[in-house]
Amino acid sequence: MEEEIDLRQYWEMLRKRWIIVVALPLIAALTSGIISFYVIKPVYQASTTLIVGKKAGEAGQSAVQMLDNSVLQANLQLAKTYAAIAQSRTVEQNVIDNLDLELTVAELDSLISINPVKTTEILEITVMNTDPDLSAIIANSMANEFSKAVIDIKKVDSVSIVDTAVTPTHPVKPNKTLNILIAFVVGLMASVGLVFLLEYLDNTVKTSDDVEKLLGIPVLGVIPNYDTGKQG
Fold first, then answer.
1. 3-class DSSP state for residue 93?
2. Can you say whether residue 216 is alpha, beta or left, with left for phi > 0 and alpha for psi between -120 and 50 degrees?
3. Could you give the domains of the chain?
4. CA–CA separation, 177 and 159 (whole Å)
5. Cα(120)–Cα(187) distance, integer angstroms
6. Of 101, 103, 85, 98, whose CA–CA distance to 146 is shortest?
7. Residue 28 and residue 44: Cα distance in Å, rounded?
8. CB of 51 closer than 8 Å to CB of 146
9. Is 226 left (phi over 0), alpha (psi -120 to 50) or beta?
10. How many angstroms separate the CA atoms of 42 and 86, rounded?
11. What is the pLDDT along the chain (232 residues), one digit of tens a residue?
12. For 204, which of 4, 52, 156, 160 is 20 to 30 Å away at the CA?
């Protein structure tokens, strides 16, 4: 019973200040929507995948050897080596020079991620940029420069491009719907917290229950508040 009374009190707090509870989440969601649609620049993602060919001495490995756990682990480590080469300063500087980009190596590096595909020697080069065409161009240039570097450094037979990067049509960031939803939920939580804070700071006496809690004595009577009207 006491729990029901407490819940009723909480509901009365929220109902009394319902404007705050409704307005704050809507303002937060509206602000997030405006920022997501009109302020934040959309970011596009383009990816290309490559597979590195075997050295001449490795081409004759049997299928059983290829499935051996130690070989799989070696492939994984080799893929990490290839990823480091692909994201090396030399490769990235060549991309900047070839495309005449107005970027430093550090700035270009922040746009690129190199990910080995599971336990294979396949690499995925991903580029994120606000220009969809440029993201695909950089990804394909990275693939070409990586191919030259890894053939020269690791002396492999070849590097084959599995999928070339194409110009993306839809941005990956920002997620407008998710941003608006998060802003609404955060605004709702903030509004409820603000209502409880205002209620906690409000020490005025409004009801007979407040009098009983304040003085610790029962209320014997209440004088109603009403208008007497105009006297004739």
1. helix
2. left
3. 14-40+174-200 (no CATH), 43-163 (3.30.1890)
4. 40
5. 46
6. 85
7. 26
8. no
9. beta
10. 26
11. 444 547 777 788 888 888 999 999 999 999 999 999 999 999 999 999 988 766 544 444 444 444 455 655 666 677 778 888 888 999 999 999 999 999 999 999 999 998 887 766 688 999 999 999 999 999 999 999 998 888 888 777 778 888 999 999 999 998 999 999 999 999 999 999 998 888 788 766 666 666 666 666 676 666 666 665 555 4
12. 4
The residue type at 181: L
Unique residue bearing structure tokens 């969601």 = 29
Torsions phi, psi for 204 (to 5 deg): -80, 155
Residue 176's alpha-carbon distances to 171, 179, 182, 183, 189, in angstroms, are 11, 5, 10, 11, 20
The CA–CA distances, whole Å, from 30 to 35, 82, 171 equal 9, 46, 21
Token reading at 117: 């595909």
% helix / strand / coil in the chain, to the nearest 5? 60, 10, 30
Place of tokens 């409000």: 202
